[in-house]
UniProtKB/TrEMBL annotation:
Name of the protein in question: Ferrochelatase
Signal peptide: 1-21
Swiss-Prot/TrEMBL keywords: Membrane, Signal, Transmembrane, Transmembrane helix
Transmembrane segments: 45-63
Length: 68
Protein backbone atom coordinates (compact mmCIF):
# COMPACT_ATOMS: atom_id res chain seq x y z
CA UNK A 1 0.00 0.00 0.00
CA UNK A 2 2.90 2.30 0.76
CA UNK A 3 4.22 1.87 -2.79
CA UNK A 4 0.80 2.75 -4.24
CA UNK A 5 0.63 5.96 -2.21
CA UNK A 6 4.20 6.87 -3.22
CA UNK A 7 3.41 6.18 -6.87
CA UNK A 8 0.19 8.22 -6.65
CA UNK A 9 2.04 11.14 -5.05
CA UNK A 10 4.75 10.99 -7.69
CA UNK A 11 2.09 10.95 -10.42
CA UNK A 12 0.35 14.00 -9.00
CA UNK A 13 3.64 15.88 -8.78
CA UNK A 14 4.42 14.91 -12.37
CA UNK A 15 1.04 16.22 -13.54
CA UNK A 16 1.43 19.57 -11.76
CA UNK A 17 4.95 20.25 -13.08
CA UNK A 18 3.86 21.31 -16.62
CA UNK A 19 1.62 23.98 -15.13
CA UNK A 20 4.69 25.87 -13.92
CA UNK A 21 6.87 25.13 -16.95
CA UNK A 22 7.18 28.78 -17.99
CA UNK A 23 7.68 30.12 -14.51
CA UNK A 24 5.54 32.66 -12.75
CA UNK A 25 5.58 36.30 -13.72
CA UNK A 26 3.60 39.15 -12.25
CA UNK A 27 0.57 40.13 -14.29
CA UNK A 28 1.03 43.30 -16.33
CA UNK A 29 -1.59 45.94 -15.64
CA UNK A 30 -1.95 48.56 -18.34
CA UNK A 31 -3.37 51.98 -17.56
CA UNK A 32 -6.53 53.01 -19.32
CA UNK A 33 -6.24 56.18 -21.35
CA UNK A 34 -9.49 58.05 -21.67
CA UNK A 35 -9.70 60.87 -24.21
CA UNK A 36 -12.61 63.22 -23.73
CA UNK A 37 -13.35 65.56 -26.59
CA UNK A 38 -15.84 68.31 -26.11
CA UNK A 39 -18.36 68.61 -28.89
CA UNK A 40 -17.72 71.63 -31.06
CA UNK A 41 -20.59 74.04 -31.05
CA UNK A 42 -21.95 75.29 -34.34
CA UNK A 43 -22.80 78.51 -32.55
CA UNK A 44 -19.14 79.54 -32.65
CA UNK A 45 -19.11 79.35 -36.45
CA UNK A 46 -22.39 81.22 -36.74
CA UNK A 47 -20.81 84.47 -35.60
CA UNK A 48 -18.18 84.29 -38.34
CA UNK A 49 -20.84 83.51 -40.96
CA UNK A 50 -23.00 86.44 -39.83
CA UNK A 51 -20.00 88.75 -39.91
CA UNK A 52 -19.22 87.67 -43.48
CA UNK A 53 -22.85 88.14 -44.50
CA UNK A 54 -22.88 91.64 -42.99
CA UNK A 55 -19.66 92.45 -44.86
CA UNK A 56 -21.15 91.31 -48.19
CA UNK A 57 -24.38 93.23 -47.49
CA UNK A 58 -22.33 96.34 -46.68
CA UNK A 59 -20.37 96.07 -49.93
CA UNK A 60 -23.59 95.65 -51.93
CA UNK A 61 -25.21 98.59 -50.18
CA UNK A 62 -22.15 100.81 -50.66
CA UNK A 63 -21.75 100.06 -54.32
CA UNK A 64 -23.70 102.41 -56.52
CA UNK A 65 -24.88 100.40 -59.47
CA UNK A 66 -27.43 102.90 -60.76
CA UNK A 67 -27.31 103.52 -64.47
CA UNK A 68 -27.45 107.34 -64.27
Amino acid sequence: MKKVMTLAAAGMIALTAPAFAGGYSDPVVEEEIVVVEEAASSLGNTGIALLGLALVAGIIAASDSSSQ
